[in-house]
Amino acid sequence: MSLDEKGVRNIANLARLAISNEDISEYQRHLNNIIGFVEQMNKVQTEQVQPMAHPQDLPQRLREDKVLETDQHERFQRIAPKVEAGLYLVPQVIE
Questions:
Q1: Residue 87 and residue 77 in contact, taking contact as beta carbons nearer than 8 Å
Q2: Whether this model's pTM surpasses 0.90
């Protein structure tokens, strides 16, 4: 599949991009290169490949799970316009 000038203009319109007439051919070339690369990748046989969560099989460096800030919940609730049962009340915006 390759894009023609009309396809490039349509994509630019959907993306809300203003492309000058002089730049259309350059965008067309770049987009066709991307599409060609995706088509090339689609030809690779991956049926026997197990999905990976991350491309590198490394353990995560985890930090210690401890509280670093003081609880200021009551302080913030005192200055809130409306509070009920520990929850902030806001005006209804959706009916």
A1: no
A2: no
